[in-house]
Structure formats: C-alpha cells, structure tokens
Design brief:
The protein is α/β, with parallel strands linked by helices and 402 residues long. It is built from 13 helices and 20 strands. It has an 8-stranded parallel beta barrel. The site of 2-keto-3-deoxygluconate (KDG) has 11 residues, from loops.
Length: 402
Amino acid sequence: MKITDAKVILTCPGRNFVTLKIITDQGVYGLGDATLNGMEKAVVAFLESYCIPALIGKDPRNTEDIWHYFYRGVYWKRGSVTLTAISAIDMALWDIKGKALNTPLYNLIGGKSRDRVMVYAHANGKDLNDTLEKVAREKEKGFLAIRVQSGIPGISDAYGVAKDSKFYEPAHKGLPNVEQWDTSKYLNYLPYLFGKVRETFGTDLHLLHDAHHRLTPVEAARLAKELEPHHLFWLEDPVTGELQEGLRLIRKQSSTPIAIGEVFNTIYDYTTLITEQLIDYIRMPLVHGGGITHMKKVADFASVYHIQTGFHGATDLSPVNLAAAIHFNMAINNFGIQEYMPHQEIVHEVFKINYRFKDGFLSVDDTPGIGVDIDEEKASRYPYEMACLPVNRKTDGTMFYW
Ligand code: KDG
Ligand code: MG
C-alpha cells in the first residue's frame, strides 16, 4: 500500500477548520484534524511545504515509523504547529488502517473497554442567575457533568462567557479582542458561585471549572482549597503549565482534582506532572498531542500513576478529532471524561459524523476507521476567514495570560 496524494482542506462553516486528507493507491483515504485555533495557516504551510511531499510513496500502514519520521527525524522539535501537523498525519493514517482492515479505530488500539464515554457540557452564564439557568438547561439535556463559567462581578469580559446567548466561541474575526482580568475579584467570587450551584443542584452533578491559566501557584492553592467543600470533578489549568513545579504547591494544599495541558503537545510537557502525581487528568487532545500514536503512549504512561484522560474538546477541534477521541476513550482503561461542546449545525453540512449523544454519554457506530467524512464541495462554499483568540489585560492595563 502506498500514499499517492494528500491535500489540505481549509474551510470555515461558522469557524475555521483544517483537515488533512491522505489518499492511497488502493482507493482508501484517511482524514486527520489539523485545526489550531487562530494559527490555521501556519499548520497548512508546514503540511503543504514539507509533510505532504515527504508522505508521498510511504506505506500508510507504518504509523509508528512515519510518526518518528516527522518527530524524531525533524531537527526543530515540539511546538503546537509542528505537533498539530503530525497529529493530522497520524490520525489520517489510523483512519486508513481501520478502513483497509474494515474495522473501527477502537479495535486497533485495544478494543472496547466501555460502550460509551461520559462527556461534560458547558454552562456559561453572564451572572449568577444566568449561570444557574444555564446549568439547569444542560442538566435537562441529560448531561451528568457540567463545566461552570460565569461573568465575574466588576470584570467586563470574563473568560468563558458567551456574548450572545447561543454559543461560546472565543475566536473573533480579525485581530484579537482585548479582554479584562482581575484576579482578586475572581478569587472572591468563585467559592460563592460554586456554593450556590451546589445548593441549587445538589451533590450528584459533576461540576468542573476552568481557571484558564490565570493564577499564580499560591493563588491557585487558595482557590483549590476554598472549592474543596464543593467537590469539583476538576479544576482546570489553575496555573500556566509552563512551570510544572508550580503544581507542587497546589497539591500540598488541596485535594481538589486538577486537569491540565490543553496547550501541551508532547509527553515531555507532562513528565514532572505525571511522575510526581501533581495532576489527575490529561487535557492534551489527539489533535495537538501527536495523534493516536503519541497519545496512546501518554495515556499508558499516565495510567501507571493513576492519572486519567479528560481531553480538550471545544468547538475549535473538528468532528474528525472528536470522533477519534471517542474511539480512543472507548479503548483505553484510564479514561476519565471527554469535553463536549456541540458544533453548530452548519459544521455538519461539511462533516458527516458517526457519533451521537445520549443521556450524558457519546458513542460512535462501527463504521471502519474514524468514521467521519468530509463533503469537499460543501467545504469549498465556506472559505477561510481570519479569526483570532483574544488577548487579556489586567484592569490596570498589564498584559496577562488569556
Ligand atoms: O481555542 C481555545 C479554546 O479551545 C479554549 O479556550 C477552550 O479552555 C478551553 C476549554 O477548556 O475548552
Ligand atoms: Mg480549558
């Protein structure tokens, strides 16, 4: 079997998605997600200028060797752009493998450890009452786990709050919007917010929260400790992950479970966090973490240390990634939870999906490979539109983490 061609499909059905399609001499093709929010064209350039020419003529079944060709073989290593390109290649190759062997992806990586995967929804409210309403709405849909984000009194643009009432989509057309941040207002409000959520919805519902990289280790330790009585499923990205040692301080202070790493891209970003058991959930998704080949190693490594998966799954990760993640989550033993932010209907005009949501869980059917297809003619109707993630400043104007 040989790779004869490959192409990148860049489309914007409501938001930008990059998809790699790898074609073989046997008529079988595979799809991989290569979307990196706001940096789509950088990944496209790397794929088109280097990866695609280097793929032609290779045997697509050699997933391990091809992965190392693009990781170990390339001198300039790591980084989101490079690893997103490698992820897309890897995903597409596993899709081909499944189709060629006429079996769903999960069968190639361990078979079924479960039939369906628990997912968490998003409740993004502009204030306390709106947040409680949003939690009620998601619970009504059948979700058993809900991430709770809320507008913070005194801050004009808090992370995670939708501008219109329908979708939270942080990327905006053109150059970055500037959002605003005040750590002390946030820290004062959060325990109160979660107290109200627990009071209203009881103890059964799994609650999650994303601090979105904005606290220092000691601030994060305070928050994790003060949220402890509300038994969160997890507190996500309490500090920026650049300083892995920072997590030690949080761990010493609190038993609130920690999830980290949606901006990570290799196993080396996780070594201290995993071996010192400083976290509980791996956030790095297949699309940015080197695809199935690399993430299987990360998940297995984490499992030795009692750490579970909880992959990133916002709307800027395409249906190809989400379907691949469901297969992966079905196969591994140390699955924890999967983020699920449903795509807008228009996205499903372009991507034909094989997964469905029911009673708080997602499952895939037994279509061979990953099971998602792309309608290229429909994709061409939605050309790329430049859109960027916001930047963030403290109320005094200081540049801060978004
Ligand atoms: O592109 C950035 C978003 O995917 C990110 O801000 C969403 O933090 C996020 C999450 O946990 O889903
Ligand atoms: Mg996050």
